[in-house]
Design a protein that fits this description.
single chain; alpha+beta; 3 domains; 7-stranded mixed β-sheet; 24 strands; membrane; transmembrane; transmembrane helix
């Protein structure tokens, strides 16, 4: 059974020295490893891809339609002026052209330039012959090189084919459960809807004006014609103003994409929440979203998701890889070697095989992480999310040293690599997110000074232990000044220290490494921490061994000879005693024997 809590709370196993400003705990029965508690963890082995795309060609179609409507209106105005020859209509047409030139034409130049730049950014061949600023052309061309195919594990061909099929079907979204993918077309703002409405009104007026060109002059409603013509001019101004804003917004999206960012106009909060709810409904069995679906969680969703931006033809594509977590929860530990006093000048150290060990809450599975992998994990409220393709191992049958420490109380050193070092340098190992240190040192005094409350304590420490101080304190030793860095202390009582009074770990090490000469590290003046020392030390199998002295061999043979002689003499003495005792045995009297003896005496003469 795996230990689920620290053993130091048990007074008979750990010894503590307490004060109102510090706490010293020793571990006399430790088994060589200290498991630093890093809280609950959930693992994510794959993503759900939310793919949003923008059709950059759509504004071009709208732009061409607007220009066609303007040219048709101007042509109708010219025809009516020639046909009617009315000064009033001529003035109205002239006013329309002047208004368009004064208020609308600047928008056209701006829109055309932005549209050209957008096409250039996606590599449209038409724009290569168009005059554009050289610096901007170089920038957008660089964007195309950066954005396309950022990650090799993305099937861009499959995604593009799905987008094309979705666009042709005039649908807004599609969900592919087997690929864990949802594709949506994004309308970057509500201006396109307004643009469409105004274009419909322009088309309505245009059809009316066309019909008026066929009406007899006598039946021509000049007032309505002038009104519709002026309305066209105003609609063009409003429409192109909206269109200018829309193209400006698209350029902002492209500029953000060049920097690998998702522009805020791509998704409103309501739209993103809706998409997350759609994804949640289609999640595979045994998986969950890493956060609750609420407005406050949206920044966290985007922070932990993998964002990929690419383009192909006239589509700008944003792929948001939302990590899916497993339902199974883990607890993360960081194994730290605890020195075991081997002799007066040497210590034994167990070298951890993993940097971080995540144990499932049912103690049946575990996942190991490296230092960089743990640093890439994201803290999410009550737990930490770790992404990657690390395999999940079964605890049963594992030969991992750390698991032997936690589960095998009869032989906690099984599968562990023990190293021997001789050193004189004190070592202070700072624990994560706490004003606590594990230490190994020879007897020395340290001074603890605090500002709140203002107090100073002097305490003697030696051997192996853990020292915790208040956030307002610092430790002064003979060689170091250790300062508090955290306003609040992580609860170090959650750390696990396997202990077993019935198992003499020192005797076990002596039996296996009794002839090994410890590695001499006395010349090293500074050690970063215990993990650094354990990995720096040489394997015991590569260290030299003590040779057996000949005098000792002679003494052993002499003792064996004396033993044989003693046994031989003892056997001889016992035999002599037995023979002697036999001669002294008194014979019993028998009348028959006496008669026989007398008869023999008579026959002799």
């Amino acid at each position: 059974m795996i230990i689920s809590g620290p053993r130091e709370n048990e007074a008979e196993h750990s010894i503590g020295l307490f004060s109102n400003i510090y706490n010293i705990t020793t571990f006399p029965d430790n088994q060589g490893l200290y498991f630093e508690h890093h809280g609950p963890v959930r693992m994510s082995h794959f993503n759900w891809d939310l793919i949003a795309y923008v059709d950059l060609a759509e504004p071009g179609y709208k732009y061409q339609a607007i220009m066609s409507q303007y040219e048709a209106t101007a042509k109708i105005c010219e025809q009516m002026t020639q046909r009617v020859g009315n000064a009033e209509l001529s003035n109205a047409c002239e006013q329309f052209v002047q208004l368009f030139a004064r208020a609308t034409l600047p928008y056209l130049y701006e829109i055309e330039n932005r549209h050209r730049n957008m096409l250039l950014s996606i590599g449209d061949e038409y724009t290569e012959t168009t005059r554009v600023r050289r610096g901007f052309a170089r920038t957008v061309k660089q964007m195309a090189n950066v954005l396309y195919g950022i990650y090799s594990n993305i099937d861009t061909e499959f995604i593009f084919n799905q987008i094309v099929a979705l666009s042709q079907s005039r649908s807004q979204n599609i969900t592919l459960n087997s690929e864990r993918m949802r594709i949506v077309q994004v309308k970057t703002d509500n201006q396109m809807k307004k643009i469409t409405q105004h274009q419909e009104k322009l088309e309505e007026n245009l059809q009316y004006l066309k019909k008026q060109t066929e009406v007899m002059i006598q039946k021509l409603d000049r007032i309505e014609f002038k009104t519709r013509l002026l309305e066209q001019a105003l609609l063009f101004e409003i429409l192109l103003n909206q269109y200018s804003y829309h193209t400006q917004n698209l350029m902002a999206i492209i500029n953000s994409a060049m920097n690998g960012k998702l522009h805020t106009s791509m998704f409103t909060s309501e739209r993103l929440l809706m998409e997350l709810r759609e994804i949640k409904v289609n999640l595979p069995m045994g998986t969950a979203l890493p956060l609750e679906i609420e407005t406050e969680s949206l920044p966290e969703f985007l922070r932990i998701s993998d964002l990929t931006i690419m383009h192909r033809e006239h589509y700008l594509i944003f792929l948001i890889g939302i990590p899916l977590t497993s339902i199974e929860e883990y607890t993360m530990y960081h194994p730290i070697p605890l020195p075991i006093q081997y002799d007066i000048n040497s210590i034994a150290l167990i070298t951890p095989e993993v940097d971080y060990l995540a144990l499932s809450n049912d103690n049946e599975n575990f996942v190991s992480l490296g230092e960089s992998q743990w640093e890439s994990c994201a803290k999410l409220g009550s737990y930490t999310l770790c992404k990657g393709d690390q395999p999940t191992h079964y605890r049963s049958g594992s030969k991992l040293c750390e698991l032997s420490q936690l589960t095998n109380f009869q032989s906690p050193l099984k599968d562990c690599e023990v190293k021997l070092v001789a050193l004189d340098t004190p070592i202070w190992h700072r624990l994560s997110k706490a004003n606590s240190w594990l230490y190994y040192t020879k007897a020395e005094y340290c001074t603890i000074t605090c500002t709140d409350p203002p107090q100073t304590s002097r305490v003697e420490i030696s051997g192996m232990g853990r020292l915790t101080i208040l956030p307002s304190c610092e430790i002064h030793t003979e060689s170091f000044i250790l300062s508090s860095s955290f306003k609040t202390n992580r609860d170090v009582k959650l750390d696990v220290i396997p202990e077993n009074q019935k198992f003499d770990i020192k005797s076990t090490i002596l039996e296996t490494l009794g002839t090994v000469i410890p590695q001499n590290l006395s010349n090293v003046k500074i050690f970063k921490d215990f993990n650094f020392l354990a990995h720096k030390a040489i394997e015991s199998s590569k260290l030299e061994h003590r040779t057996i002295e000949p005098l000792f061999i002679f003494k052993v043979e002499f003792h064996i000879t004396i033993l044989y002689l003693s046994l031989t003499i003892s056997i001889l003495i016992v035999c002599a005693i037995v023979i002697r005792c036999r001669d002294k045995i008194v014979k019993m009297y028998s009348p028959e024997i006496a008669d026989n003896d007398s008869n023999k005496d008579q026959d002799d003469p």
